[in-house]
Design a protein that fits this description.
Blueprint: H1 3-9, H2 15-27, H3 37-49, E1 59-66, H4 81-92, H5 96-103, E2 107-114, H6 141-160, E3 165-171, H7 175-187, H8 191-194, H9 203-220, H10 227-234, H11 237-251, E4 256-257, H12 261-273, E5 281-282, H13 292-299, H14 315-333
Parallel strand pairs: 1-2, 1-3, 3-4, 4-5
This protein binds alpha-ribazole-5'-phosphate and nicotinic acid (NIO).
Catalytic activity: 5,6-dimethylbenzimidazole + nicotinate beta-D-ribonucleotide = alpha-ribazole 5'-phosphate + nicotinate + H(+)
Keywords: Cobalamin biosynthesis, Glycosyltransferase, Transferase
Pathway: Nucleoside biosynthesis; alpha-ribazole biosynthesis; alpha-ribazole from 5,6-dimethylbenzimidazole: step 1/2
Length: 349
Amino acid sequence: MRLEETIRKIQPLDAKVMEQARVRWDSIAKPLNSLGMLEDVVTQMTGIVGSTDVDINRKVLVEMCADNGIVEAGVSQSGQEVTALVAENFLEGNSVACVMCRQCHADVVPIDIGMAVDTKVPRYKVAYGTRNFVKEPAMTRQQAIQGIEVGIQVAGELADQGYGLIATGEMGIGNTTTSSAVASVLLGAPVEEMTGRGAGLSSEGLRRKIDAIKTGIELHRPNPEDPVDVLAKVGGLDIAGMVGLFLGGALRHIPVLMDGFISCVAALIAIRLCPNADGYILASHLSKEPAARRLLDAMGKEAMIQAQMRMGEGTGAVAAFSLLDQAVTVYRTMSTFDDINLEQYEHLE
Ligand SMILES: Cc1cc2ncn([C@H]3O[C@H](COP(=O)(O)O)[C@@H](O)[C@H]3O)c2cc1C
Ligand SMILES: O=C(O)c1cccnc1
């Protein structure tokens, strides 16, 4: 479905169902609210699916794989060829995120949305990599929209296959640079505060990275009121694909988990484009990249996990799969006060 139509069709969460879910939580034989955010997230998930019966048995991690022309400016410790290498390893189940998914019975779906080379990874390619934004806009507005629409399409395909929970992952060398550029413009924050070492950058490299971002922003002057303009000028196709996953998941009433820094940037774009999408987007962990906290605060979201992770690939979101599995199982199967003939606790305020 096209971007405009998707944005128009996304509905707010079902408040009535969420009230019923709260009643169910409060009837479970345990101190009230004692599972904290886990109760809140499961309740939110009932509002998303529009039923008190949440089923996340089938979980999937989508890896949006793309190359970023800005790598040419020496902003990453790794070469561009690493993107395709890791992307192909996703197919073999051989990456950190894949190992974590295997452990919690989740599938991994890699998507080539814009890698510089062709591989065996399923091809939804918008371009063979983006341009170096120090010299020219990363992509055209049309390409940015096409990238978002690929994500919407993929979310739709996964919905048709019966998945009940989607995690957003990415593989794209250089994408912490594009993410810092987008975050800086959308949050109106200094580039220095939004930029970190990504996958491990020297101090000299970090200075180069900050300079490149400043140059790109000065050169193209992306409009902070127009998230697609920002995405096109200094963003990337990996980010665009994730924006589409958030919107496409919301359209099909599937909860979509954010991962770390890059994924949070994509979520912010999705919410700016479509405020109704907000309720469908769940936070997982707080990335160690410096912009992560500001991004979550801007979205009014709180991470369930704080483990100093800074890996991307969806690893933080997959860590949350296990927590959510446990929470949903308690919600669905645990005895109530009535079941065990215990008087319900009074609310303690
Ligand atoms: C082997 C390897 C596996 C990865 N898995 C995720 N990333 C992470 O690092 C990249 C972003 O960092 P930067 O902006 O500094 O290039 C992304 O691909 C992200 O997913 C990886 C990076 C590497 C090198
Ligand atoms: O938090 C992230 O998403 C992240 C951090 C560093 C490198 N790649 C991804």
